[in-house]
Design goal:
Blueprint (H helix, E strand, L loop, with lengths): L7 H6 L47 H24 L7 H15 L1 H16 L11
Length: 134
C-alpha cells in the first residue's frame, strides 16, 4: 500500500492535526456536552505537535470565527432570498434576517471548533516536524 498524503481539506473537516493530518485536535469527538467543546490535548497523539503554540495563541480565532459567521450569515440570507424572495412590504426581510441569525447561532459551537482548526492550520504546515522541542 503506497504512503499517501492525507487530504488537507478532509483533515480540516475531520478536525485533525495540521502537521500529520492524522491525530485528533479535540479530546471529545462530539460537541456535546458544550462544557468540553474546546478541550484539546496538549500534544498530538500521533506526531506530538503542540496544539497551543504559545500562551494565548487561540485569541486570534475570534477573527476567524467572525469571518465564518459573516459568511454563513450572507449565504443563508442570499439562500432565503433565492428561495422565498425578499420584500419590506410583507416583512419577509425580517424573517430572512431572523432565520439567518438563528442559523448562525445554532452553528456557533461548530464554528468555534472550525475556527481553531483553521487558525492552527495557518501557522503549522504539513510535515514540518514537531514543535515539541521548540
Amino acid at each position: 500500500m503506497p504512503n499517501t498524503t492525507p487530504s488537507h481539506i478532509l483533515s480540516i473537516i475531520k478536525m485533525r492535526c495540521p502537521n500529520c493530518r492524522k491525530g485528533a485536535m479535540f479530546t471529545q469527538k462530539s460537541i456535546f456536552p458544550l462544557k468540553g467543546l474546546l478541550m484539546m490535548p496538549e500534544h498530538c497523539s500521533v506526531c506530538h505537535q503542540k496544539m497551543e503554540i504559545e500562551p494565548g495563541f487561540y485569541y486570534g480565532t475570534g477573527y476567524v470565527s467572525y469571518a465564518l459567521s459573516v459568511a454563513m450569515l450572507a449565504i443563508s440570507f442570499v439562500s432565503y432570498h433565492l428561495i422565498f424572495g425578499l420584500s419590506y412590504k410583507d416583512n419577509s426581510f425580517f424573517y430572512a434576517l431572523g432565520s439567518s441569525i438563528s442559523i448562525v447561532l445554532l452553528l456557533q459551537p461548530i464554528t468555534m471548533r472550525l475556527s481553531r482548526v483553521l487558525y492552527l492550520n495557518m501557522f503549522v504546515k504539513f510535515g514540518k516536524g514537531s514543535s515539541l522541542n521548540s
